[in-house]
Amino acid sequence: MCSSIDNLIFFVMRAITLFCFVMAMTISCCRNSDLSICPDIVPFPQEMTLSRGTFDVAGASIIVSEELDGLSKKYIADFASHLSEITGVKEGTSRNRIVFMREESMQPSCDSTFFKVDQSYSIDISRRSVLVKAGSMNGFVYAVQTLKQMLPVEIYGTGQASDAEWTLPCCTVKDSPRFGYRGMLLDVSRYFSTVDEIKKFIDMMEISKMNVFHWHLTDDQGWRIEIKKYPELTATGSKRRHTLVGHHHVSNTYDGRPYGEGMWYSHEQVREVVDYAASKGITVIPEIDLPGHMMGALAAYPELGCTGGPYEVWGKWGISNDVLCAGKDASYVFLKNVLEEVCELFPSEYIHIGGDECPKTRWEMCPRCQAMIAELGLIDDERHSAEHYLQSHVMKQMSDFLAERGKKILCWEEVLQGEVAPGATVMAWRKNKYGHQAARLGHDAVMTTRTHLYLDRYQSEDKGNEPLAHSSYLPVSMVWSYDPFISEDEDAEPLTDEQKSHIIGIQSNVWREYIPNNNHLEYMVYPRMAAVAEVQWLMPENKDWSRFRKGLDKMRRVYDIMGYGYALHVWNEEQIPE
Ligand code: ACM
Ligand code: ZN
Fold it and tell me: Of 232, 333, 381, 453, which is most buried, counting CB atoms within 10 Å of its CB?
């Protein structure tokens, strides 16, 4: 009896000693931890605990559980073959193992259920094994990205780098995104991006653990997606006579050079981009901006405007008074035919149908629009005009049409001026408060608030030494500090938890009025996109500026190795932009 109590005491003491020893060897890598040992990962995982020791990666066997879907298997196989190539050691030549397995219903620390997909993952690294668990392709993508960021930066290159130290730190990571929807918008109407340039943009979205590429395909300055039923959209609507030089509020000068010949995407190219993005867990959401921002379409089919034209594809920036006529049946037929082709091309559940900046000037004067208003019984009220309700009617028609095809609409916040179509997701762009208004009405909202998330803004207060950009100043630190729940209305009640759950995501927008080519684009986008990623992914209580700032130093090396341009302001260096 006595000896069994002694044994028990001995056992408990051993357990306590072992526990203390393990605790001394592990360090939580969240806020305020020792940055010198913290891996440089952007966006940083929600939870990371380091322990002593490393895992040798070169030659490890990569074991993938049978039950994984084909896309996940392919993604991991590509990672494995890249690892062999870069390390110069064939897979399976050491006793070490990296195991990928499926684990359903891991508990996300936040709302990460956008697209009804569990986006969480975990990684457990010990000296002999790495165990990666996720419930979906997206989780595996994010796990692989975290592993890559913990490896030597040479992993981002293409040439063999056998001299690098191919180890991973022993640690555990438990991670899931703060927001289910994490997007980037690219405007290809004002200035065009080739398919290769878009793929390069998507590659950095993948590294940044983003999951939505919002492709702004049509606007006043050029229609850029092939619609087989309306060939003039691209034949005529993609080309403009000339382009404004300087800021649109002050300049009246044009460059005299035609722009846009051949600058549109065929169905084949669209599919190529959609498939490429899907192979990285990224959904492409196309935007057909309607019923305003339609000069590309009106130049091609003037009969769709209120006055009948003639119209030309705009060479200037701003908001056109000429919009699609909402009183002609032909306009609705046109929009539905266009959206029909769009639905066939894009598997995304969401289709963006614009709705922003649609002046009502023409509709007020147009007999057909007024007849439609009378027929629908629309009247002015204390909040909105009959013409605003006419726009709601257009949006609702498109929403119903898309719903029949299993799609949901995304639209800009102006849809709040009237009746929002049932089930519409609202994209707030001027102020947070419009996203909050949508959430209070029970609509989902994605926040793209321009003060903090429009990457066409200046990166320095010394604007004279910067390339022409849009109005205000937006440094990396300001992007990083964005808070979607702050309201510009001081008197506004805070959102309830239920209302907050309608804020499903954050997106940054790259409008191109002042971004004519890809070098300039990269100068505007990087490294601010890294700050966007951290805002989208990380819970506010897990953010740490010093850790992020150190992570950017690593990101800069990634940009260098992968051939991305970037702005240097955050590194406080002089840069002569192109
Ligand atoms: C927008 O910036 N007009 C959505
Ligand atoms: Zn009209």
Answer: 453
State CA 484 to chain mean position distance: 15
The response to whether residue 419 sits with its C-beta less than 6 Å from ligand 1 reads: no
More confident residue, 312 or 471: 312
Q: How far is the CA of 563 from the centre of ligand 1 (A)?
A: 30
CB atoms within 10 A of CB 534: 27
Measured distance CA(271)–CA(217) in Å, rounded: 14
Considering every ligand atom, which ligand is closest to the CA of 289? 1
* Nearest atom within ligand 1 for CA of residue 450: 2
Question: Residue 367: is the preceding peptide bond cis (ω within 30°)?
Answer: no
User: How confident is the model at residue 205, as a pLDDT?
Assistant: 98
| 3-state SS string for 200-251 | HHHHHHHHCCCCEEEEECEECCEECECCCCCCHHHHCCCCECCCEECCCCCC
Residue labelled with tokens 């239920």: 498
pLDDT at 13: 53
Query: Is the separation of the CB atoms in 42 and 480 below 8 Å?
Result: no
Query: For tokens 């208003």, what's the residue?
Result: 373
Q: Is the CB of 364 under 6 A from ligand 1?
A: no
Computed over every residue of the chain, the mean pLDDT equals: 93
Among all bound ligands, the one having the nearest atom to the CA of 371 is 2
Give residue 518 CA to ligand 2 midpoint distance, Å.
38
| pLDDT per residue as tens digits for the range 141-196 | 999 999 999 999 999 999 999 999 999 999 999 999 999 999 999 999 999 999 99
Give the per-residue pLDDT at 344. Answer: 98
Say how many Å lie between the CA of residue 414 and the centre of ligand 1: 10
Atom of ligand 1 nearest to the CA of 509: 2
Gap from CA of 128 to ligand 1 centroid (Å): 51
Phi-psi region at 262: left, alpha or beta (left = phi > 0; alpha = psi -120 to 50): left
Which amino acid residue places its CA nearest to atom 3 of ligand 1?
356
468-527 tens-digit pLDDT: 999 899 999 999 999 999 999 999 999 999 999 999 999 999 999 999 999 999 999 999
